[in-house]
Write a structure and sequence with these properties.
Layout (H helix, E strand, L loop, with lengths): L12 H25 L5 H19 L10 H25 L4 H8 L2 H13 L5 H18 L9 H23 L5 H23 L5 H4 L2 H26 L4 H8 L2 H13 L5 H19 L16 H5 L6
């Protein structure tokens, strides 16, 4: 049996776009959940536990997709994807300890601006004039959102969030590339298993362990369940399957909408006050995203029908929002 591809029925293109949109809603509210959870468990440990539990859950659900996948190519792709995903989430979570969920969400969305420039480096696709203009707009928006009024300093949390956007851009490109060769659901399982192990190793080496009473708290366990089942398991199946069938530019634009839902969640659940200056900054960042992603882009070749969702994905209640 071919271990990298399996023949499955393809779905209409709009379904894959709806998958990405559904993921953004769940992720938007996850910014608030993460803000609460990281007060209990340090960032690397939190990401490690979250990813490892998600990987084990997905391995149980999609075990048939892992048959014969224990080869150097598949495992290497899973390790690379797991490493860049862990770094993205870890740096983002570190940033979240020193900024608000709303700002964290919008600054993370700047990965959409980074993707075209990263593609220039790895695939020799030169950025368009629109990409350059979008980058300028984005820098202006970041300044309004992050730089303290009357100073030229940017907070640590905001700076770490901008760094995480670089890793998220790399993750989008890696998923799009690896999914052309390897089964996307099998890749997602290894992505979380490897990312979880990396998080636990880094956490054990650098972070203090919290008390048992703190992690056994019902509120924390509920937050962890949301992160494991919805924000990791469901969302990454939706994202990775969607990105295997949607061009990178369109995919990153749809995924950037998580920043809007992140601000909404922060205002509704955390009482975050959004000033006029921040609103202008958000508007500039969002305009930059639209300018960059709606400009003509080289089309990504369609993923083969073999990588479409499997009957397991369609039948399993835990694989849908």
């Amino acid at each position: 049996m071919d271990t990298t591809r399996q023949t499955k029925r393809s779905l209409p293109s709009f379904v894959y776009k709806l998958m990405l949109l559904g993921a953004t809603v769940i992720w938007g509210f996850a910014f608030v959940v993460m803000k609460d959870a990281v007060d209990v468990l340090p960032p690397a440990q939190l990401i490690g536990v979250r990813f490892l539990l998600t990987g084990l859950l997905m391995a149980a659900l999609f075990h048939r997709r892992l048959r014969g996948s224990l080869n150097a190519g598949f495992l290497g792709a899973g390790l690379a994807l797991g490493a860049v995903t862990f770094l993205a989430f870890w740096v983002q979570t570190v940033g979240l300890t020193d900024t608000t969920p709303g700002k964290n969400a919008f600054l993370t969305a700047t990965y959409c601006i980074i993707v075209p420039f990263m593609l220039w480096a790895v695939a020799r696709r030169r950025p368009t004039v629109a990409n350059v203009g979008a980058a300028a707009l984005c820098v202006a928006g970041i300044g309004l959102v992050s730089v303290a009024a009357g100073t030229l300093t940017i907070g640590f949390g905001d700076l770490m969030t901008l760094l995480c956007a670089v890793f998220f851009a790399a993750q989008i490109i890696a998923i799009a590339r690896f999914s052309q060769t390897y089964d996307v659901l099998g890749l997602t399982v290894y992505q979380f298993l490897f990312g979880g192990v990396l998080g636990l190793l880094l956490g054990a080496a650098t972070e203090p362990f919290p008390g048992l009473a703190a992690v056994a708290n019902a509120d924390f366990l509920l937050n962890l369940a949301y992160l494991v089942v919805l924000a990791s398991g469901v969302c990454y199946v939706l994202q990775n399957v969607g990105l295997a069938h949607v061009p990178e530019a369109q995919g990153s634009l749809l995924l950037s909408l998580e920043s809007v839902f992140g601000v909404i969640a922060s205002v509704l659940l955390c009482g975050e006050v959004v000033t006029g200056r921040m609103m202008l900054g958000f508007a500039l960042i969002f305009a930059a995203i639209l300018m960059s992603e709606l400009a003509p882009q080289p089309e990504k070749r369609e993923a083969p029908t073999e990588t479409a969702p499997t009957p397991e994905l369609e039948e399993s209640p835990s694989a849908t929002p």
